[in-house]
Write a structure and sequence with these properties.
With 326 residues, the protein is of the alpha+beta class. It folds into 2 domains: 165 residues, no CATH class; 129 residues, Immunoglobulins (Immunoglobulin-like, Sandwich). The protein is 45% helix and 24% strand. The protein contains 3 helices and 10 strands. The longest helix has 70 residues. The model has no long low-confidence stretch (mean pLDDT 83).
């Protein structure tokens, strides 16, 4: 017989076991931490790569700009060297005008920028190349100018030598010419010959009578021949010097007496200057009469004939007392 009761049984009934989530949570947290740490490591590595690339890029840009600056500085050194050694080119590279000055200004403007774009770098390269090309042209001009200057220097030296030689030759020629002129001058001196001194008494009727009586003589007629083979045709002066018996020169300024310079005796008094129309290669006869405003004295009268400063002949004539009352 079964017995039914409303009281609980003293024997416990079996229950299903509870689930344990602790380990699952720990695992999830560990996985999340590891993932985060891995991501951080990956991200840090990525940033380092980016920084490295940026540093490399910055270094590359810096190097490229530095190279551009160096190329520009080298070009300026070449340019300064040219203008410093050749003043003739200075006007062509003046800072205030000209294509070179403008190129320098444009290049400086680009290189003064903090960062250059690829286009600006290319432009700077092109401008520096253009500047170097123009400097190259200037260098060629300098080379040509240097060559021309050397040639001019050689030409100047040659001209100086030629001038010195010409001066020497001219001096020699001048000396030879002067010597020749002197010889010709001396050689063209007339020669006097057939000197004849005739004391005369000129009467009132105009007729002359030869006499040696001093008190009767009122003029001396002097005649001579002159000749020379090289003397030129033309008029020349012959000086006649008369010395009286007292040893003094006969000089009457009112009758044309004066002084001349002789080659050997210096200044000398002449009694009369006789113009002679000489004809080259021929003998010329000369005659003139000397009248004085005083009486002729007894004794010897010496007659000297000069031409071109040289004495070319002389003669003597004695005037006597004459007669019982002479």
């Amino acid at each position: 017989m079964s017995t039914t009761t409303n009281y609980p049984s003293a024997t416990p009934q079996s229950q299903p076991p509870k689930k344990d989530y602790k380990n699952l949570v720990i695992g999830l947290l560990a996985a999340g931490f590891l993932g985060t740490w891995g991501y951080l490591l990956w991200n840090n590595n990525k940033q380092e790569q980016v920084q490295t690339q940026q540093q490399a890029q910055i270094s590359k840009v810096t190097d490229e700009k530095g190279q551009l600056q160096k190329n520009f500085d080298d070009a300026l050194v070449r340019l300064d060297s040219l203008t410093g050694t050749n003043n003739k080119l200075t006007s062509q590279v003046t800072e205030n005008n000209g294509t070179i000055a403008k190129l320098k200004q444009n290049i400086r403007g680009l290189l003064n920028k903090q960062h250059l774009t690829d286009a600006e770098k290319k432009k700077a390269e092109d401008l520096i190349k253009e500047l170097n090309d123009k400097i190259g042209n200037l260098e060629q001009q300098v080379a040509q100018l240097t060559q021309d200057n050397q040639q001019l220097t050689q030409d100047k030296q040659q001209l100086t030598q030629d001038k010195q030689q010409l001066t020497t030759d001219l001096s020699t020629t001048t000396a030879a010419k002067q010597d020749l002129e002197k010889k010709v001058d001396v050689a063209s001196t007339l020669n006097a010959s057939n000197i004849l001194i005739t004391p005369m008494h000129e009467r009132k009727d105009g007729k002359d009578k030869e006499t040696t009586t001093a008190r009767k003589v009122n003029k001396l007629v002097i005649g001579f021949d002159v000749s020379n083979r090289i003397a030129q045709t033309g008029q020349t002066d012959v000086y006649v010097c008369i010395t009286g018996p007292d040893g003094k020169p006969v000089s009457v300024p009112a009758l044309g007496s004066g002084t001349f310079t002789s080659r050997d005796e210096g200044d000398k008094i002449f009694t009369a200057k006789v113009p002679v129309d000489f004809e080259a290669g021929k003998t010329k006869s000369v005659q003139f009469a000397w009248k004085q405003n005083s009486e002729f004295q007894r004794g010897n009268y010496k007659i000297e004939i000069y031409h071109n400063g040289f004495k070319i002949g002389e003669g003597t004539q004695e005037l006597k007392k004459g007669g019982i009352f002479g």
